[in-house]
Specification:
Layout (H helix, E strand, L loop, with lengths): L2 E7 L6 H9 L7 E7 L5 H11 L3 E6 L9 H11 L8 E5 L3 E2 L4 H11 L3 E11 L5 E3 L12 E5 H6 L9 H11 L3 E12 L14 H8 L4 H15 L2 H17 L7 H19 L1
Helix pairs in contact: 7-9, 8-9
Protein name: Glycosyltransferase family 2 protein
């Protein structure tokens, strides 16, 4: 199966070479890898150039968005710049962060999933980060049916059905919800242990604290789903203020009548899906 990869990169000189080396070690090599240098001010571009000179699979594109490392919009804007460089001659497409080390058989196993079950639209493994003692541990608890945005693979049919990725906080949740809306399944493989070199959120600007709640509004969750989801998030992260930040972001978006990311029909499906999952976990 033909795989294309897009890697948005902003000031990643500490990690990028490890990521690119892990791609070169893949038992199923990708056909094309586009590395997007997004307004980097460190040695990121020099590293990209050193790889594009030696390996024809890598391509570089420069773009200049914001200097702020805001979750959601910045990374997807860079991803879409990379997407413009690619044709549609692929079987699956992967968005990969520049601070990830993939297992050597990652793409081979992803291809096996897509080839074996055409209903699967999104697949991936799980992230592991080093703890204080230097041991690789599975990172903060996530639902087992969720693929982290740092290493998501999409079948071509699914990617087209969801009309690409939304340039907003919450893009890596709304993509899975829309995939389900269009009849696709999400598949995760616990055997695929991805090494994440930078802990989540370390580079995010403080301005980002309200974006999660705004994203819930834009996904048409409604007040009560947002309330319950925010309580759960605050409890999991052991951060009480996360609940209040989320609710403030949601109510602010409601007051401003921020445009939705999904249609009314898609929103109805999303709310029904969320309520069903919540009720199932209570049983």
């Amino acid at each position: 199966m033909r795989c294309y990869i897009i890697i948005p990169s902003h000031n990643e000189e500490a990690y990028l070479a490890d990521t690119l080396d892990s791609i070169l070690r893949q038992t199923l090599p990708p056909k094309k890898v586009v590395i997007v240098n997004d307004h980097s001010t460190d040695g990121t571009e020099a590293i990209i150039d050193s790889y594009t000179e030696k390996h024809s699979v890598f391509q570089k594109v420069n773009t200049a968005s914001s200097t702020e490392h805001m979750p959601g919009s910045k990374v997807i804007d860079a991803f879409n710049k990379g997407l413009e460089m690619l044709d549609s001659d692929y079987d699956f497409l992967m968005k990969l962060d520049a601070d990830i080390i993939l297992p050597d058989d990652y793409l081979e196993k992803v291809a096996y999933v897509f080839k074996g079950n055409p209903k699967v639209g999104i697949t991936g493994g799980f992230a592991y980060e080093k703890d204080s003692e230097g041991v690789w541990q599975r990172s903060h608890p996530m639902n087992n049916d969720h693929v982290r945005g740092a290493f998501k693979a999409y079948s071509k049919n699914c990617f087209k059905a969801i009309d690409g990725l939304k340039s907003a906080m919450g893009w890596d949740t709304v993509d899975e919800l829309l995939a389900r809306y269009h009849g696709f399944e999400i598949y995760t493989d616990e055997a695929l242990r991805v090494k994440h070199l930078r802990p989540v959120g370390n580079a995010y600007d403080q301005k980002a604290k309200l974006l999660q709640g705004r994203a819930m509004y834009r996904m048409r969750y409604g007040y009560w789903i947002t309330f319950i989801a925010s309580l759960k998030m605050a409890w999991k992260q052991r951060k009480r203020y996360a609940f209040f930040d989320n609710m403030e972001g949601y109510l602010q978006a409601e007051r401003e009548q921020v445009p939705y990311l999904v249609s009314e029909e898609e929103g109805k499906f999303i709310r029904k899906f969320r309520w069903r999952n919540m009720k199932r976990k209570l049983v």
